[in-house]
Design goal:
about 130 residues, alpha+beta, GTP Cyclohydrolase I, domain 2, 2 helices, 6 strands
Length: about 130
């Protein structure tokens, strides 16, 4: 059976809960509709997160992102909604979503939204010689 758009996000157990590590997912084909004109808006999404107990399942994420294709949404609203839904599903230690929208009327828009779990501290950066 072919995939269908879906608002259902799935997660799976993090295989390494004792360690902070970063997962980066690039989604180059995000689309939604401009709520003013109904014309399509295109963006590349970059999801970066430090999982806690769960990781985001990729096929479900693909179908979730696809579900916005025919919905009207302002860039700021859709970016924050996606972040909120992902945080609700996966409860990460840290999550950042960057939505880099294609030019529209000579204007480029990038929206960055972040979540930090209460009490989580980012490890110190390591500078190698």
């Amino acid at each position: 059976m072919p995939s269908q758009p879906s608002k259902e996000l799935e997660v799976f157990p993090n295989p390494q809960t004792a360690r902070d590590y970063t997962i980066r997912i690039r989604i180059p084909e995000f689309t939604c509709l401009c709520p003013k004109t109904g014309q399509p808006d295109f963006a590349e999404l970059l999801l970066e997160y430090v999982p806690d107990r769960f990781c985001v399942e990729l096929k479900a994420l693909k179908n979730y992102v696809w579900s916005f294709r025919n919905e009207g949404a302002f860039h700021e609203a859709v970016t924050n909604r996606i972040l909120e839904d992902l945080v609700a599903a996966a409860a990460p230690r840290f999550m950042r979503l960057t939505a880099d929208f294609n030019v529209r009327g000579g204007i480029y828009t990038a929206v960055v939204a972040e979540h930090r779990a209460e009490g989580w501290q980012a490890p110190a950066a390591v500078a190698l010689p």
